[in-house]
Specification:
6-stranded mixed sheet; 27% helix; 22% strand
Length: 171
């Protein structure tokens, strides 16, 4: 279900200041079981090939966190779902929100959170009614179907938004 909340269910929120949110944050600390919370952040400003770059970044994070290589069909499906959600959220920002500014991925033992920051004013929503046979317009419907929850965070007085989605970690 689409939601707009200040405090989303997984409560992963932003990483505390100075805790290392760069693209290399957590590098060298890879383990199959994520520590309390691990974050990765990728700036997408001025990047060529934004969607493949975002997917590669997410794939590397999944590898570092032990999701890949997957040892089971459920694990492979969970990783593929994350990569699809990353693609859909980044593509949505490209098409409808003046392009994405940043991709953030956070992982705990139970939940993986994807956040895409953009400067757009629009409100993402699945097209209703959903028409499976028609091209286009499926991105947020896919996100809604694959994720535990998703929503939009806005900061009062600032332009743009953060579109977030949470997926269950593989069992």
């Amino acid at each position: 279900m689409s939601t707009t909340r200040q405090h989303p269910p997984g409560d992963l929120g932003r990483e505390p200041e100075g805790a290392g949110t760069g693209a290399d944050a957590g590098a060298g600390a890879a383990s199959p079981e994520p520590v309390e919370r691990q974050w990765r952040t990728l700036s997408l400003r001025g990047v060529a090939g934004i969607v493949p770059t975002a997917r590669d970044f997410a794939r590397q994070a999944l590898h570092d966190w032990g999701w890949l290589p997957a040892t089971s069909a459920d694990g492979r499906a969970a990783a593929e779902d994350v990569l699809l959600v990353v693609s859909e959220l980044v593509t949505n920002a490209c098409l409808h929100a003046e392009g994405p500014e940043e991709l953030r991925i956070a992982c705990t033992a139970k939940v993986l959170r994807v956040e895409v920051v953009d400067s757009g004013a629009g409100q993402p929503a699945p097209r209703t009614p959903h028409r499976a046979g028609r091209p286009g317009g499926h991105g947020m419907f896919i996100v809604q179907r694959l994720c535990l929850d998703w929503g939009v965070l806005r900061v009062t007085g600032l332009a743009g938004k953060t579109v977030w989605a949470e997926l269950a970690a593989p069992a």
